[in-house]
Design a protein that fits this description.
Blueprint: E1 8-15, E2 19-20, H1 30-45, E3 54-58, H2 70-77, E4 86-89, H3 95-108, E5 114-122, H4 130-133, H5 144-148, H6 158-168, H7 173-189, E6 248-258, H8 259-264, E7 271-280, H9 290-300, E8 310-314, H10 318-327, H11 340-344, H12 351-366, E9 373-378, E10 383-389
Length: 394
């Protein structure tokens, strides 16, 4: 494993099962679910929480139960020391990925020795689009961004952008449905190592009806969509329930440490963060910034795309996933080997660190040792995030 005094190492990365909306995690308050995941993850690497410098938490919809810096609430709920500060980050589907990047940057800059990066989303309680549901405090984004893009057809929903992307790439409905089915099949055949999946065994929130309680040893199966549903937006479009990533509930946690901390504590990291970068395109096009983000990250360390052997990419629908795979020249074996968001579901605020947990878990369980791995995601505001992960410990 490459090492540097300025490199951030991953001590562990774990996630809860990604359960379908209104499924077995729906009775959890997001603060309680995240606190549970944080406690188990830190116990996994046997560190003292008194050494944690900061907690960075991603959440795509920080309203209602997920508002008011839920990261700070979660560390208090986990009974961690009160002196630890926390920050909650909202960057759409890239929220926890951005939390991971900021944690890595803090460690690399020497301003932190041990940082917890996490993400959570209970979409059963706080549904997609929740910030825009109540306009009592003003419209989301105001009117100026919409006016800026009136000449380009205006701002559109994710599915409409997906229809346009599919048409531009000549991706038919059958092709998109086949990709989504492939991902669901992969997600259903993954044998998770026991240390990868956090297993909530109780529902903490007494203010809500309790879900059925049982140990979740692996992901709940995502609901199977109907065979031939109508397109979601345009009657002539191709984005439909059969090829979108289903919403989900879940949390994910990673513990990052400096090279000095790792050496002084004689620890063996499971991975190292080599480089991180972001990029963006206009919010009308919406998708397509991930390759630029990847190239920027690779450029920081003088690497080329051919050094990447494994890619975990997050996309809201098959159209975006297939577009990225085409641009990056990835075959089925080169990306989303565990199903991705299309197969597992997407708890938006947790998906970035969830991807890291998948890569770490998959390589540990199979014994594979990719030369380099990449995490990629794109948000519906046009921004994208990329992280390069070094070979795993042997």
């Amino acid at each position: 494993m490459p090492t540097s005094p300025h490199m951030a190492h991953v001590l562990t990365a774990r996630r809860t099962p990604f359960a379908p909306v209104h499924g077995l995690l729906s009775g959890w308050h997001p603060v309680d679910l995240l606190a549970h995941a944080m406690a188990i993850t830190v116990d996994d690497v046997d560190i003292s929480t008194t050494e944690v410098t900061h907690v960075l938490v991603g959440c795509a919809h920080p309203v209602g139960a997920q508002s008011a810096n839920l990261g700070r609430a979660a560390l208090l709920a986990a009974d961690w020391p009160e002196h630890i500060p926390a920050t909650t980050i909202e960057r759409g589907a890239g929220s926890s990925h951005r939390a991971l990047q900021l944690a890595a940057q803090a460690v690399s800059a020497g301003t932190a020795e041990l940082v917890v990066a996490a993400g959570v989303e209970v979409m059963s309680l706080v549904p997609p689009g929740a910030p825009a549901l109540n306009r009592q405090y003003g419209a989301v984004w105001g009117s100026a961004p919409a006016r800026r893009y009136e000449g380009a057809g205006g701002l559109v929903p994710t599915g409409v952008a997906g229809d346009r992307l599919a048409a531009a790439d000549a991706l038919g409905r059958e092709t998109q449905d086949r990709e989504a089915a492939r991902c669901r099949r992969l997600a259903g055949t993954v044998d998770h190592p026991p240390w990868l999946v956090v297993t909530p065994t109780r529902c903490n929130d007494r203010d809500r009806p309790r879900a059925e309680v049982r140990v979740l040893a692996e992901d709940e199966a995502a609901p199977v969509p109907p065979e031939c549903p109508s397109p979601l937006h345009d009657g002539e479009g191709t984005v439909a329930a059969t090829n979108i990533a289903p919403a989900a509930d879940g949390a994910a946690v990673a513990v990052l440490a400096s090279d000095g901390w790792v050496r002084s504590h004689d620890r063996r990291p499971v991975a190292s963060i080599v480089a991180t970068a972001e990029a963006a395109v206009d919010p009308v096009t919406m998708f397509g910034a991930a390759p630029a983000a990847l190239d920027r990250a690779l450029g920081q360390v003088g690497l080329h795309r051919d050094r990447i052997e494994l890619v975990e990419l997050d996309a809201p629908h098959a159209a975006a996933a297939l577009h990225l795979a085409r641009v990056l020249e990835l075959d089925d074996a080169g990306h989303n080997r565990t199903g991705g968001g299309l197969g597992r579901g997407r708890p938006l605020g947790a998906i970035g660190i969830g991807m890291l947990a998948e890569i770490v878990g998959w390589t540990a369980h199979t014994g594979a040792r990719p030369g380099m791995a990449a995490l990629l995601d794109e948000s519906d505001d046009g921004s994208a995030t990329a992280t390069i992960v070094a070979p795993f410990a042997t």
